[in-house]
Design goal:
globular, Alpha-D-Glucose-1,6-Bisphosphate, Chain A, domain 4, alpha+beta, about 140 residues, single chain, 4 helices, about 25% helix
Length: about 140
């Protein structure tokens, strides 16, 4: 599933760039997500997600695969397995920042694939949860 979102924060673009290119800062901006550890340039993260009556816990590697400071564009990839091994989730997220008045405008393009229990919830539920996560992410980003 493809998601495209935009946001604005009242902070300088360089401050936002510093945050989105730091795994240990950007991952906790997602509700229920945390960094568990680091090996080389790759981090292990987890996220707890509630979909309807179900709660799921995913864990796996996350890394920034490209970061262009000139265009202020970063690409992050994550791959996770649901606790118990019943489902998988993969995401590729591209964040582009641009100056916006006294702050920063951002565009988030996400390509998400899920299997297992989450996939059984249906595309509408997955879209709603993902949109909520992105909205909460941008609100948290504005506070850092």
């Amino acid at each position: 599933m493809q998601f495209n979102n935009s946001f604005s924060v009242a902070k300088p673009i360089d401050q936002d760039w510093s945050t989105i290119t730091d795994i240990e800062k950007v991952v906790p901006c997602v509700p229920g997500a945390s960094v568990l550890g680091k090996t080389g340039n790759q981090f292990t993260a987890q996220i707890k997600i509630k979909m309807g009556a179900m709660s799921m816990n995913y864990k796996g590697p996350v890394e920034i695969v490209s970061a262009d400071p000139n265009s202020k564009t970063a690409v992050m990839k994550a791959s996770a397995t649901e606790a118990g091994g019943q489902g998988h989730a993969q995401a590729e997220v591209t964040i582009r920042l641009s100056p916006g008045g006294s702050g920063t405008n951002g565009q988030i393009s996400s390509n998400v694939a899920v299997s297992g229990k989450a996939a059984q919830m249906g595309e509408g539920v997955i879209m709603g949860v993902t949109e909520g996560l992105i909205s909460a992410f941008t609100s948290k980003l504005a506070t850092l």
